[in-house]
Amino acid sequence: MHLKSLVQTINLGFIDRDGGIVKRDYSAFPVCIKDLANSVTLESRTEQTHFNEISEAIKKEGMYNPLIVIANSYKNWEHATNTIAPKYVEPYDGDKDYLALFGNQRIKIGLDAGYNVFDCMLVPIWQEAVVLSKRLNWGYKYDQR
Q1: CA count, 13 A, side-chain hemisphere, 76
Q2: Containing domain of residue 97, as a range?
Q3: What value does the CA radius of gyration of the chain take, rounded to a whole number of Å?
Q4: How far is Cα 33 from Cα 18, in angstroms, rounded to an integer?
Q5: Is residue 145 part of a domain?
Q6: pLDDT by residue (tens digit) across 120-141?
Q7: Least crowded by CB within 10 Å, which of 67, 104, 109, 141?
Q8: Would you say residue 142 lies in a domain?
């Protein structure tokens, strides 16, 4: 089953190192769980703040935002795990195409509900993942939809 996001497209503007403006459009696309690596253990996501509320919101209304992913590489995984407590780190899996940067709680919730395909947005670099996450969540609160 496919867990689609309500948000399907978004655009962002960035200022590059030379002071120029870069505009980028993002579109959600489906990714099968077999192609999706995690930096954190999914079991640990249930301990996160608001996990139950997010789970209930997804069950009632669907997934609001897509997951944010980056190309899976050891360097990206290492960057993703450098501030995570070792007991929560998922071992690197180089056989998968994408690394989930934002949305691990939604993956856990979706898998528990029987989904195996998730809408994602792909970023080329870490900095864009952070900006995209902030933009997707700007003004959004799971309890105020």
Answers
A1: 21
A2: 2-137
A3: 15
A4: 38
A5: no
A6: 999 998 888 888 988 888 745 4
A7: 141
A8: no
